[in-house]
From TrEMBL:
InterPro entries given in the database record: Aminotrans_IV, Aminotransferase-like, BCAT-like_C, BCAT-like_N, Class-IV_PLP-Dep_Aminotrnsfr
Name of one Pfam family that matches: Aminotran_4
Organism: Xanthoceras sorbifolium
Stated name of the protein: Uncharacterized protein
Family as reported in the entry's similarity comment: Belongs to the class-IV pyridoxal-phosphate-dependent aminotransferase family.
Length: 386
């Protein structure tokens, strides 16, 4: 393995400044924060049970343990293990500690990172399939574009970022799952301006996912949550509150997804996927990317779909404004993205799409992308050296 770039911000270990009543032998990284300032007023209990120190507990209703760094990490680790999550986090890279960890207890980011408390960060993903990263370079190009729009200067050049991502997947030993990564304004303070952040930060995490791709049809509703204005919808920043609320709205209505319309009432996208239609004229029709995220999967589908045109299964491929009327009377409707790949929509609001079943073009496009992930050209498949 080639060595990683020199860490940009190695945290000095500093003693915790606590009250006289507590043994302050523990050390924590400078960027780990204690919440609350009232140590003087707390009843401090060593988590290990030894040497309890009582300080004016009149304002306290429960005992809050004061933890050493190692104790805190151990608790994070235990907490993770108890979560019983279907997702396993196998490795994390952080430019804060300048390396990769496979210990879930260390997979944390500092509170004073501006991405955490101001949303000043951008992110992207890439699928891991059969020990290869799918469309890594396309996703890397997009995160760098998002970073530039968000005025975040990455801590390393493109080649180093790419090398770190590949090495993180290699260290994780994951062969199927996803890689998520973030560029943030960095750590420094809790101000609004990032001027106190001296160095941007880079984080990446590998998530194992062995579940098979599902291709059953889903229901969609129209989102009542406002879509982000084009300046923000076209970049992949961490500000996903509208997207989360939109997904929750779908779930509250027994649907899988809520579809956004743009400011002019045309069909836009879903909260983490693009949409496309097969029209009555047998055209593949997709909203253009000027006011929404330019999906890497959607762009790849536009290319792969050309095979269906050559085979006579599709008449044409078109990107443009799509009205709700056109969408709802389409023969097929589909969601397209790294997470769903290609997923049929069989009902939108009260309107049944086509004959209400998963359509043949949607299925053919799903097969094409699965094939591409397993045996596509080197431009879309980057091997991971394990
Ligand atoms: C808002 C939004 N639109 C579209 C997409 C699909 O993009 P991609 O295919 O690159 O995953 C995503 C993916 O996360 C998204 O968040």
């Amino acid at each position: 393995m080639a060595s990683l770039p020199t860490p940009v911000s190695q945290n000095r270990l500093v003693p915790i400044a606590v009250s006289d009543h507590v043994d302050a032998s523990s050390v924590v990284p400078q960027n780990l924060f204690f919440s609350g300032t009232g140590l003087r007023k707390m009843r401090i209990v060593r988590s290990s049970g030894q040497a309890e120190a009582f300080v004016d507990s009149s304002t306290l209703t429960t005992d809050v343990p004061l933890l050493s760094c190692l104790e805190a990490i151990e608790r994070i680790r235990t907490n993770r293990a108890n979560q019983n999550s279907k997702q396993q986090f196998l490795a994390m890279y952080s430019s804060i500690f300048g390396g990769i960890t496979t210990d879930p207890g260390a997979m944390v980011i500092p509170m004073d990172d501006h991405m955490v408390h101001r949303g000043h960060g951008v992110f992207d993903t890439a699928a891991i399939m059969d020990g290869h990263l799918y469309e890594l370079d396309q996703h890397l190009d997009r995160i760098l574009k998002s970073a530039s729009t968000a005025k975040i200067k990455p801590p390393y050049d493109r080649q180093s970022l790419r090398r770190i991502l590949i090495q993180t997947v290699s260290a994780s030993k994951c062969r199927k799952g996803s890689l998520r990564y973030w560029l943030s304004a960095g750590v420094g303070d809790f101000q609004l301006s990032p001027s106190g952040c001296h160095q941007s930060a880079f984080y990446a995490i590998v998530i194992q996912d062995e579940s098979p791709f599902v291709s059953t049809g889903v229901k969609a509703v129209t989102s009542s949550i406002p879509i982000k204005p084009p300046q923000f919808a076209t970049m992949k920043s961490v500000n996903y509150l509208p997207n989360v609320l939109s997904k929750m709205e779908a779930e509250e209505n027994d649907a899988y997804v809520a579809i956004w319309l743009d400011g002019d009432g045309f069909i836009a996208e879903g909260p983490n996927m693009n949409v496309a239609f097969v029209t009555e004229e047998n055209e593949l029709l997709m909203p253009q990317f000027d006011k929404i995220l330019s999906g890497c999967t959607a762009k790849r589908i536009l290319t792969l779909a050309e095979a269906l045109v050559r085979e006579g299964k599709l008449r044409a491929i078109r990107q443009g404004n799509v009205t709700v009327e056109e969408g709802k009377k389409a023969e097929e409707m589909m969601l397209i993205g790294s997470g769903v790949l290609v997923r049929p929509v069989v009902q939108w609001d009260e309107q049944v799409i086509g004959d209400g079943n998963e359509g043949p073009i949607t299925q053919a496009l799903l097969n094409l992308i699965l094939e591409d992930m397993k045996s596509g050209p080197p431009t879309v498949r980057v091997p991971v050296p394990y």
